[in-house]
Write a structure and sequence with these properties.
single chain; alpha+beta; Nucleotidyltransferase, domain 5; 3 domains; 6-stranded mixed β-sheet; 5-stranded antiparallel β-sheet; 15 strands; 41% helix; 15% strand; globular; Transposase_InsH_N
């Protein structure tokens, strides 16, 4: 009879054997206890489920079917899951249904548990965090998008929708908005004719305001410079600059600017660092996160914002001098542009408006260059001018350039690893909640790899016997000993020659 033990076939240095000993998975039972019933057929063990999906990220397998087939062929994975060779693994639809059953809070609890272990091992400093985002392809096709229907008098309003629409649901938009967008698209398309009068085929213009995906309504149409337009989600990351550990991850809608996602990211990041008694003092990000409210929010929290200002910002306006005491601009002709009112721009940001009188501008010899079409010269400046100027000065300094290189060398390699080696190139689930769970699992797998690779530095100490210094009382004692050893005739001769002993 052949004797076979699975634990004896897997070496001690195996990745999954070390991973099973590294993390205490029992806390998942308490987190998921309310989701299971005490009657009926036994469900999939929560520890087995999370080990399976984490292993899919570590093995770069995004398909549940391929994941289960792959696990059945690996002895080390079977030992990690707690299965014997002759036991049947869970069915792949069960893995998918369990993923939908568990709320995102359980996945976040797992992320916090692994992050706390990284903190305990000294892998996280916490004082400086690098933030960035990248689009991730949704599990939907851009060719299958449909046009939104106009909402009736009692129909739902798109801006008032709070719940996530189900797959296959028909989305609506205000009728006047759809008419305005259709008119603008027809104007941009035009009626182009070729050299021989042949009419070219008009391109199909897609927008999140007019189209939606019936398979994944949460996916958004977005485009990245140099890439084709696609249905995407946005993965926002915060990475600690000490050892490159991911400190926060979240799934965002891809049709909004990065600067609008920073407040939610910052509040979650602060809460996690505060729970681990780590202070956050500096935030590194690119110009996509630059706006006045973000600068003001970071300064109010006593953090240094190493975020380059947007390219359109100018610290000085050529030809106009600003007087802080009177809050007015003065042109080269000596005419004042006084503060008139507060207003908002297209993005909803507040700014201050200054303008001169019509009489001064109509009689100005420089009107053809200063305000050729307007009746008077008008200047708009953001209400966060002081915060913008401080950020601009930090950006121009040498330290600002070093921080820029630090951000690029910290967060961008992490995104490269997640996309190419941890299965984050494309979503295998649908919906915003599913995308958030997938990104959390990917970040947990990445941090677990960091924990496994960490080797604490051993300090080698050695004791060296140094000669005792001849100072103070020790010096006098040595001199007495030396005199005691000196012969009497030698002492007499030195006294006669006034030579000290």
């Amino acid at each position: 009879m052949t004797r076979f033990r699975l634990s004896e076939r897997v070496p001690r240095h195996n990745l999954y054997r070390r991973l099973a000993e590294l993390v205490d998975w029992d806390f998942l039972y308490a987190e998921t206890q309310s989701l299971y019933s005490h009657t009926g057929q036994p469900s999939l063990d929560p520890v087995v489920f999370f080990k399976l999906v984490l292993m899919g990220r570590l093995e770069n397998l995004v398909s549940d079917r391929r994941l289960v087939e792959h696990c059945a062929l690996r002895l080390d994975i079977l030992l990690f899951l707690g299965y014997e060779v002759d036991e049947e693994l869970p069915w792949h639809p069960t893995v998918s249904r369990t993923r939908q059953l568990f709320p995102a809070a359980v996945f976040e609890r797992l992320f916090d548990h692994v992050f706390a272990q990284c903190v305990a091992r000294g892998l996280v400093a916490g004082d400086t965090q690098a933030v960035d985002s990248a689009p991730v392809k949704a599990n939907a096709s851009l060719e299958a998008v449909l046009e939104k229907r106009a909402a009736g008098p009692t129909g739902p309003h798109l801006s008032g929708r709070t719940e996530t629409p189900a797959a296959g649901a028909v989305l609506t938009a205000p009728a006047h908005q759809l008419r305005q967008l259709a008119t603008g698209q027809r104007r941009r398309q035009g009626a182009r004719t070729g050299a021989l009068g042949a009419r070219h085929e008009q391109a199909r213009l897609l927008s999140n305001k007019t189209h939606y995906s019936p398979t994944d309504p949460d996916a958004r149409i977005s485009v990245k410079p140099g890439k084709a337009r696609a249905l995407n989600y946005l993965c926002s990351l915060a990475v600690d600059t000490a050892k490159g550990v991911i400190s926060h991850v979240q799934a965002d809608y891809a049709d909004k600017r990065d600067s609008l996602h920073l407040p939610r990211l910052l509040s979650s990041l602060q809460r996690r660092l505060r729970a681990n008694e780590l202070p956050l003092r500096a935030l590194l990000a690119d110009a996509g996160y630059a706006n006045g409210p973000n600068y003001a929010r970071l300064e109010a929290a006593h953090m240094t914002a190493w975020i380059p200002v947007f390219g359109q910002y100018k610290p000085e306006i050529e030809g106009f001098a600003y007087d802080r005491t009177t809050d007015a601009f003065t042109c080269v002709e000596g005419k004042q542009l006084l503060f008139q009112k507060y207003d908002t721009n297209q993005d909803g940001g507040w700014h201050k408006t200054y303008w001169a009188t019509c009489r001064d501008c109509q009689q100005c010899p420089r009107k053809s260059t200063g305000a050729p079409r307007a009746r008077r010269k008008q200047i708009n400046r953001t209400i966060y001018e002081a915060a913008y100027r401080r950020a601009w000065l930090r950006q121009q300094s040498r330290r600002g350039q070093r921080k820029r290189r630090l951000r690029q060398g910290t967060v961008e390699p992490v995104f490269g690893n997640l996309i190419h080696h941890y299965g984050l190139r494309r979503m295998n689930v649908r919906g915003h909640a599913g995308a958030h769970k997938t990104m959390l699992l990917t970040a947990v797998a990445y941090n677990l790899k960091k924990l496994l690779k960490h080797r604490p530095q051993r300090q080698v100490s050695s004791a060296v016997a140094l000669p005792q210094p001849l100072l103070g009382a020790n010096t006098r004692a040595c001199r007495r000993n030396k005199r005691a050893e000196t012969p009497l005739p030698a002492i007499v001769n030195k006294l006669r020659s006034n030579t000290p002993v």
